[in-house]
Amino acid sequence: MGKEYAINGKLKAMLKGLNPAEQKAARYIIDFPDDVIHHSISELSVLAGTSETTIFRLSKKLGFDGYQSLKIQIARELSLSTPVVYADKNELISELIGALNQQNQLLDDGQLDGISRRIVRANRLIFFGVASSGIVAEFGATLFMRAGFSTAYYTDPHLQIMTAVSLNEKDIVFGISASGNIRDTVKSIEVATDSGAYTIAITGGVGSRIVSAAKETIYVAQGGHETGIPQLQPRVCQLVVIQLLLEKVIKMRDDTLKTLEKVDRTLDKKRYL
Predict the structure, then answer these.
(1) All residues at 6 or more sequence positions from 181 whose CB lies less than 8 Å from its CB, including other chains
(2) What count of other Cβ atoms lies within 10 Å of the Cβ of residue 176?
(3) What string of DSSP letters covers 146-162?
(4) Over the stretch 153-200, which tens digit does the pLDDT of each residue have?
(5) The pTM is what?
């Protein structure tokens, strides 16, 4: 859920007095205020599942002369807001355990089996992600490279696009985004899809832009919006999803385990005794 900044509190107080469409827009802004910062009113209306008129009307009810003024004020307030900081290790670990339990409920073994079969047949596995999602992309590429697959990861949006245009139906692209509304990643997945690659979003953003851009989506437990300190829960869940896919692939392709063992023996030479 969104942090308690002034507009957040005002929207919560107004909720019961708003019509259903306005409530829908208000709840989206409460949960994902940084989407307001990064998107136009038309883009936000699609994400929130409401009309531009509804968002404009809600902006007026909040005391602004239009959406742009609301956007500027939310940007100001978020820049001053205090990031979520856990009081102690038990609180953080409890949150992670809760997210993993939720992730267990979200995962569909049939879906993971289908994706794993595609991975076995694929020529290349490409991972796209920016900022903290780039760390997950690197993990995915490294993990499958170690198992003998041709992989790459790209965190630079320009390199993502240049790679995406060269892909074909024998390639798989994973788009990593906690919110699912990061413009660069979404655009790169759109280009990869248009090139014929099989694109898979790993995201917590239900109904987000990346879901529309990708051919398939694996949902992860969402840890809130990405302003301030990046939330750990969705990243941990994304890592788990990638690990599970590799575990399934190992069972489907006999040489995968042998390759992993060979890599381990080779890496042993690089370790101090």
Answers:
(1) 32, 35, 38, 39, 47, 205, 208, 209, 210
(2) 34
(3) HTT--EEEE-SHHHHHH
(4) 999 999 999 999 999 999 999 999 988 888 899 999 999 999 999 999
(5) 0.71
